[in-house]
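Board notes (copied after class):
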Amino acid sequence: MSQKVQMPLAAPSVGAGFWATLKRDFLLSYRHRGEMANPLVFFLMVITMVPLGISPEQAILASLAPGMIWVVALLATLLSLDSLFRSDFEDGSLEQLLMTPQPLYLQVLAKVLVHWMVTGLPLTLMAPILGVMLSLPESGYMPLCITLLLGTGTLSLIGSIGAALTVALRKGGLLLSLIIMPLYVPVLIFGASAVRSAIDGFPIGGQVAILGAFLATAIVLAPMAAAGALRISVNG
């Protein structure tokens, strides 16, 4: 009698695990559309209040616009970071994620990518409209979009480290802010200065190159640091 040989089940590929996490987090974000809209509403409300609270004069608003838009975008990104790993930790799926054979680096990168696409990308697309409200000069719109596109990605990646370190704490929002806010300062400085330089007629290639270097470095290092922080936070 011939015996049937059972072939072992092939482990899912690395790419399949990355895309599965990406699609799952997109679906969860869509189901919690209210939470997803909070940073955008905050961004819109603060920028709307600036002319009312400071001055409606176009010259004053134009001088404040680059720094104000960047500061509010930074705070809006920070507002949504605490929930990056929180829901997975509370329902136990984060522990399962740590035990899977898939590289945790890619799983974290997928989660950060979703966070950027539902927070940083909409903020970038909304920024020119709010620039009109702050009388931002025409020469500042393209640099604003470019710097926010690079900068918000870096903010999400850096923020994932703080979110991973504080995921096991009940009220880790304040600690999260204290951990990552100093790391946000260089991104804020170069992002706002690039827009200001463009408005003043100076080249912005240097600032954009530095923001690109920040993003490239964060893509390589931040998911590894966040993965190690998750193991420490969950396993104690």
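Comment from the instructor: Residues 1-11 have pLDDT under 50 and may be disordered. Residues 18-235 form one domain.
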